[in-house]
Design brief:
10 strands, alpha/beta, 10-stranded mixed beta sheet, 12 helices, 19% strand, D-Maltodextrin-Binding Protein, domain 2
Length: 327
C-alpha cells in the first residue's frame, strides 16, 4: 500500500467517524426514551403534589412505554431537588416537579433562578386560594377585618408558612393596598395554619380552597373572600377579594414540570407534549379534583416561562417593600 493510498483511507475513516459521532446525539433523541425516566419532587411524600405526580407518572408510562420513577427530595428550601436535576445529564431522563412556592423562595432567598437554570415544560394545574377566619371570629366580612386592621395597627395576626412564603407575600400585598397592618405568625404548613385559625390562635389565614370546602360546611371556619378572578361554585355567596374591596391580583397556587436547560429540543418537545397530556388525563383528574385542584397544561414551554416571570414581578415588588433579607 502506498503512503498516498494509506492517507486517503485514514482521511475516509476519520470522516466516517465524524459523521457517525454527529449522528449519535440525533439517534439518541429519536430513540428517546430507551430507559427509565425519573421525576424529582422537591417536597415530602404524602401531600397532594406527591399524589398527583405519582398518578401522572403512571399515565406517562403508558404513552412513553417506559418506567417512570418518582423520587422525593425535600429540604434546603427546594435546593436539594433542584441540584439533583442540574447535576444530572441534560438528556431528558431527569424531570423536576415545580411549584409556585419555589418562585417565592427564588425572590426572597436569591439562591436560584427557575427560568435561567431550568427549562419549564408545562403547568400541570392550579388551586384557588381563600381567606379564612375562625368560627368565633368577630369579622363577618372582609370589610370588617380591614376596618379593624386600619383602626388597630399591628393588632391583627395571621398564619403563613413563614417569611417570604407566597401566602405571606400575598397578605402583605393586601395590607399595602387596603391600608392595614398585621403580624405574621409562621406555621409548618396549610393544615397547621388552618388549625390555628379554627382554634383562635390567629385572626386569619390565606389557604387553598380545599380547606374551606372541608371545614366551612361544618362551621369550623368562615370564608371571607376568594383570592381569584371569579367566585367559586362551592362558595357562590363569597365575594372575590376585589369585590370585597381589596384590589389585588388573583392567587392560584400552580404546579408544573421542568428539565435541565441544555436538554435537546426534540426531547423537550416530546416531554412537553406527553407531560401536558398526562397531567390533564382522567385518572389524574379523579385523584386531584377532590383536593380542589383545577387541571390544566401549557400549550408551549414559553407559556409556562411567562407565568413564572409574571409571578417573579409581583413577588419582587412585595418583597422589596417588606425588606426581607435572605437567610
Amino acid at each position: 500500500m502506498t503512503i498516498q493510498l494509506a492517507r486517503r483511507r485514514l482521511a475516509l475513516s476519520l470522516a466516517c467517524a465524524s459523521l457517525l459521532g454527529a449522528a449519535l446525539p440525533a439517534l439518541a433523541q429519536t430513540d428517546y426514551p430507551n430507559r427509565p425516566i425519573k421525576i424529582v419532587i422537591p417536597l415530602p411524600a404524602g401531600g397532594a403534589a406527591d399524589v398527583g405526580v405519582r398518578t401522572m407518572a403512571l399515565e406517562l408510562e403508558k404513552s412513553l412505554k417506559q418506567t417512570v420513577l418518582v423520587e422525593n427530595k425535600p429540604g434546603g428550601m427546594f435546593l436539594l431537588g433542584l441540584q439533583s436535576v442540574l447535576s444530572a445529564p441534560a438528556d431528558g431522563y431527569t424531570v423536576i416537579q415545580l411549584n409556585q412556592g419555589m418562585v417565592g423562595v427564588q425572590v426572597v432567598q436569591k439562591k436560584f433562578d427557575l427560568n435561567k437554570q431550568l427549562l419549564p415544560l408545562t403547568i400541570a394545574g392550579d388551586t384557588p386560594m381563600v381567606l379564612l377566619v375562625g368560627p368565633q371570629s368577630p369579622y363577618k366580612t372582609m370589610k370588617d377585618l380591614v376596618a379593624y386592621g386600619r383602626a388597630n395597627p399591628g393588632k391583627l395576626n395571621y398564619a403563613t408558612p413563614g417569611q417570604g412564603a407566597i401566602e405571606h407575600l400575598k397578605i402583605a400585598q393586601m395590607e399595602k393596598v387596603a391600608g392595614f397592618t398585621g403580624v405574621n405568625v409562621p406555621y409548618k404548613g396549610g393544615p397547621d395554619m388552618v388549625k390555628a385559625v379554627m382554634g383562635g390562635e390567629v385572626d386569619f389565614t390565606v389557604a387553598p380552597a380545599i380547606f374551606g370546602m372541608q371545614y366551612a360546611p361544618k362551621g369550623q371556619v368562615k370564608v371571607l373572600a376568594v383570592i381569584d378572578q371569579a367566585r367559586l361554585k362551592e362558595f357562590p355567596d363569597v365575594p372575590t377579594i376585589v369585590e370585597a374591596g381589596v384590589n389585588v391580583s388573583p392567587l392560584r397556587i400552580w404546579s408544573g414540570y421542568a428539565v435541565h436547560p441544555d436538554t435537546p429540543p426534540a426531547i423537550v418537545q416530546r416531554l412537553q407534549r406527553e407531560l401536558a397530556a398526562a397531567s390533564v388525563s382522567a385518572p389524574v383528574a379523579e385523584k386531584l379534583t377532590p383536593f380542589g385542584m383545577t387541571l390544566k397544561s401549557s400549550k408551549t414551554t414559553e407559556e409556562f416561562r411567562q407565568q413564572i416571570a409574571s409571578d417573579v414581578v409581583w413577588m419582587t415588588e412585595v418583597a422589596k417593600d417588606l425588606k426581607l433579607e435572605p437567610n
